[in-house]
Write a structure and sequence with these properties.
It is an enzyme of class 2 (transferase). By secondary structure, this protein is of the alpha+beta class. It contains eight helices and 26 strands. A six-stranded mixed sheet has the order 7-4-6-5-9-8, with no helix packed on it. A six-stranded mixed sheet has the order 16-13-17-21-20-18, sandwiched between helices. The structure holds ligand LQZAQKY5 and molybdate ion.
Length: about 400
């Protein structure tokens, strides 16, 4: 089987998936999810021409006065009475301008004696310190587009537009299965020949930043019957993720167990390093991702496939990791026949790749804050050359 390019594998994975059902949730709970539909403004913002400052609403053409102060306008009140030539209204930030007024003279630039007001500063252009009605957004306008990630700024806009709830896709359930006879649970005593199972806690930590429910189904031994049963009970989830047993050894049983449980494999083996043995398919309605067991390989494949898949079924318009480019701090060798995803960190002098690029080197991985993407067949790179990076934060 030839190795599948990463972008092709991502596209095939997305094609296997159906978007999750839409639900309306209170705006604050929608933060961190993606909008399922376009959101329209339900009101004008501002609702009228409002003052942006504390001062006096006047007709700019009357500058520099004098004006006669005939009333007051404060935020929360309805529109004040109209003013005529030579008249002014005391006004506060956020309050509606009286009809006839077209500018606000800030109080620092005004001299007032009883009802008598004059300007003591620069000329006053029409529209000065006025926020026109609907200048932020107008009733019926598309305010936020489907697929947009909802962060604090989008929450503010949605609330101001009159929304108390927003349409988002329901949180998917992600089942994690750690396969391997050599694994013991995190924190348990580790007899010789065993090692703590770190992949599920690592994946749960990666998923913690996303809107989903993680179900850790524990450690499954390298036994076809037990692994097949584990797949059957995980099939209720939206995404089943296994780690380990993805390669070609005699104890690598994930693929046969998945198929014995009724799963249909879509692809296996990707043109990437680390992460070559990644596989994906469907078991009933559940999507399946079989990640390699090596912790670094599991981390990189989760970054490039699991998190994007979750964003995709959750309605994200841009589910793939963001990339940028940055200069290298030191040279890199040519790449081989697979795309390299090197663990690296951002330093003053440029991007530094961590000392060990072994797919089992977790201490080195723990120093990384980005991946360097070096496409297959890249020539050696020198210090200062710009490379593609995928930030991990
Ligand atoms: N003859 C070949 N051998 C291997 C190939 C190949 O193409 N031909 N591919 C290699 C590559 S690339 C990778 S990556 C690994 C992946 O193998 P598996 O997915 O089958 O993983 P395991 O063999 O089960 O485990 C690998 C390694 O990771 C440790 N591990 C497993 N699970 C966990 C866990 N939950 N927490 C921490 N560590 C875990 C396991 O003990 C092994 O040391 O295959 C190569 N071999
Ligand atoms: O591709 Mo494996 O993931 O090199 O270590």
């Amino acid at each position: 089987m030839s190795l599948l390019p990463v972008a092709e594998a991502q596209a095939r994975l997305f094609a296997l998936a159906s978007p999750l059902a839409v639900e309306q949730v209170p705006v604050v709970q929608a933060a961190g999810r993606w909008l399922a539909h376009d959101v329209l403004a339900l009101r004008d913002q501002p609702w009228a021409d409002l003052s942006a400052m504390d001062g006096y609403a006047v007709r700019a053409a009357d500058w520099p006065g004098p004006w006669r102060v005939v009333g007051e306008s404060a935020a929360g009140a309805t529109q004040p009475q109209a003013i005529g030539a030579g008249e002014a209204v005391r006004i506060f930030t956020g309050a509606p301008l009286p009809p006839g007024a077209d500018a606000v003279l800030i109080q620092e630039n005004a001299t007032r004696d009883g009802d008598h007001l004059t300007a003591s500063h620069d000329p006053l252009p029409s529209g000065h310190h006025v926020r026109p009605a609907a200048s932020d957004f107008a009733d019926g306008a598309i305010l936020l587009e489907a697929g947009l990630h909802l962060g604090p700024a989008q929450v503010a806009a949605a609330v101001l537009a009159g929304h108390g709830a927003l349409p988002v896709r329901r949180r998917p359930r992600v089942a994690l299965l750690s396969t391997g006879n050599e694994l013991v649970p995190p924190g348990a005593p580790v007899p010789p020949g065993f090692l703590p199972s770190s992949n599920a806690p690592m994946l749960a930590a990666m998923l913690a930043a996303l809107p989903c429910e993680v179900i850790d189904m524990g450690i499954v031994p390298d036994d076809l019957t037990q692994m097949t049963a584990a797949f059957a009970s995980a099939a209720q989830a939206d995404i089943i993720v296994t780690t380990g047993g993805a390669s070609v050894g005699d104890h690598d049983l994930v693929r046969p167990a998945f198929e014995q449980a009724g799963g249909a494999l879509d692809f296996w083996k990707i043109r990437m390093r680390p992460g070559k043995p990644l596989m994906a398919g469907k078991l009933g309605d559940a999507l399946f991702l079989g990640l390699p067991g090596n912790p670094v390989s599991a981390f990189v494949t989760a970054t490039l496939f699991l998190l994007p898949l979750l964003r995709h079924i959750s309605g994200a318009a841009r589910p793939l990791p963001r990339s940028s480019d940055a200069p290298l701090a030191s040279p890199l060798p040519a790449t081989g026949e697979r795309d390299d995803y090197l663990r690296a960190f951002r330093a003053e002098g440029g991007i530094v790749s961590v000392t060990s690029q072994d797919s089992a080197a977790t201490a080195a991985m723990a120093r990384a804050d980005c991946l360097i993407l070096r496409p297959a067949g890249s020539p050696p790179a020198s210090a200062g050359d710009r490379v593609t990076i995928l930030p991990l934060d």
